[in-house]
Design goal:
- By secondary structure, this protein is mainly β.
- The protein contains three helices and twelve strands; from the N terminus they run H-E-E-E-E-E-E-E-E-E-E-E-H-E-H.
Length: about 170
């Protein structure tokens, strides 16, 4: 029979291998799906994160807000200051459009992905950023300074808790 201390130790060890959803960002290289991640963080149900960029034609900011649920990335809201040149101008089916000066806000729409590929710009074009809330801290990562001109894949992966917790890299 195992002693309580042994049971507690086994329980603690099992938590390290407990599968959790994590937001993982990897360099996107077609044909090489398992590039080492540049960012990974535990993503509990409903975890929100965002991407932002300067639109290449309109030269106005665009902010996309996503939520993680069911092992996927859900489009939650998009903020834009212009609706020309490919930017949205009306509510999608199952969504709504509203004004919140100076933003046009598109909410809902039920778009969902396993992976999003970002083409990262540079300081002149794009200025792509990632925002992530971690407890009381809001992290902003200027992707364009470290990954200028590259493509990054954002996806939700099921990882052991220890791996996801240790993979978090706030210095990217």
């Amino acid at each position: 029979m195992l002693r309580p201390a042994c049971l507690l130790g086994l329980f603690a060890l099992s938590l390290l291998f407990w599968p959790v959803d994590a937001l993982v960002i990897r360099p996107f290289v077609p044909g090489l799906p398992f590039e080492p991640p540049v960012f990974a963080a535990v993503a509990p149900l409903g975890q929100e994160f965002g991407t932002g960029y300067i639109h290449s034609v309109q030269r106005t900011p665009v902010l996309d807000v996503y939520r993680i649920a069911g092992g996927r990335i859900w489009s939650w809201r998009e903020y834009a200051q212009s609706h020309n040149a490919g930017l949205p101008f009306q509510a999608p089916a199952c969504g709504r459009f509203r004004m919140q000066h100076p933003w046009m806000v598109i909410e809902g729409g039920r778009q969902v992905w396993r992976q999003i590929v970002l083409r990262v710009g540079n300081a002149k074009l794009g200025r792509n950023v990632l925002t992530w809330e971690r407890g009381p801290d809001r992290i902003r990562i200027d992707l364009y300074t470290r990954y200028s001109g590259r493509r990054l894949a954002l996806g939700v992966e099921r990882l052991p808790l220890a791996t996801a917790a240790l993979a978090y890299r706030p210095d990217i």
